[in-house]
């Protein structure tokens, strides 16, 4: 599948977003073929450009990670000419992505209602802390705050007496970006049928909630909120990390068949006759005792020994890798989860690949993240501006040309 045959080829997206959730949405759409124009502020651009260290050459590693495959322009949206340029961009766009505070677009005269009037086919994607409706609609949102409000921090960590623990990755930011990209792609499919756009609204709060399906099932069924269980599962056992002679491994013997296979591997088939462990319900009721007994077996050999035995027996198991080890893992490399682009200023840049594969597609990382204002002139020329007009806009500080 060539670049021209990617699923979203022909889709024009204007990204008015910064940091992570919105830029991730834009990057996913760009990876699938959309022409994404990232509009940044004149002074400093996207805030992630200043999330340093680390740097790659002169550029922020964080910015480079989230903004590949996009064209970039820098625009003063407070000026009349800047608003005029943005309005022209949006008049010809299929989609706009924004993650500003709730009233920012309204103050710019670029609310959904105003833009829909000039471009009925526009898909208006909004990512916020809590969504655009409800009593919290005006509140700012950050991943840490959303993890707490969504319940995630109450189920993360070694146990309820150890204090709140956030998930190491900014999961609400990342998931909100994925949900927004899914909504934008679905709305674009709908537009192909009707010619009309729509408003797509998601939030970090809801993104966090989507990770609580099992725990919410328990709470809704019993009226009791589940607590943090370390690496353990709230519904199945054994399904967690176990201590070996030289570290930890994860074991997912979550059904009866795999439980019996596990007992064969460790040479403890008699444990199935122990009334504390004979069924999943029994194992969950006696989880601490189960872990203590199994750790006694696993401590007899090194992790690699156990992983080989478990794999041969068909028991789901795996190592606990560092991020560096994961990035060098042969399976991650075989699945193109580490990709490289060529940046005009700093040269080769590595980033994470796209996790959704389309049959026959080669890796889609074809353009590194833009230099601040790199494509301002190019985009303006496409809008019909002359060289003289572009130079005048630059000299007056309406645009920045990288």
What fraction of residues sit in β-strands? 15-25%
Count of distinct strands: 14
Instruction: Assign the CATH class of the largest domain.
Output: Alpha Beta
- Cα-atom radius of gyration: 25 Å
Average of per-residue pLDDT values: 96
Structural class: alpha/beta
Number of domains: 2
SS summary, helix count: 17
Q: What is the molecular shape?
A: elongated
Strand order of the largest sheet: 8-7-6-1-2-5-14
Low-confidence stretches are: none
Under CATH, the topology of the largest domain is which? Rossmann fold
The CATH architecture name of the largest domain reads: 3-Layer(aba) Sandwich
How widely separated are the two ends? 32 Å
Largest sheet: 7 strands, mixed
Percent of residues in helices comes to: 25-40%
* CATH superfamily caption of the largest domain: Crotonobetainyl-coa:carnitine coa-transferase, domain 1
Task: Give your account of this protein's structure.
The protein is of the alpha/beta class and 402 residues long. The chain has 2 domains: 279 residues, Rossmann fold (3-Layer(aba) Sandwich), CATH 3.40.50.10540; 82 residues, formyl-coa transferase, domain 3 (2-Layer Sandwich), CATH 3.30.1540.10. Helix content is 38%, strand content 16%. A hairpin with a 3-residue loop joins strand 12 and strand 13. Helix 1 crosses helix 7.
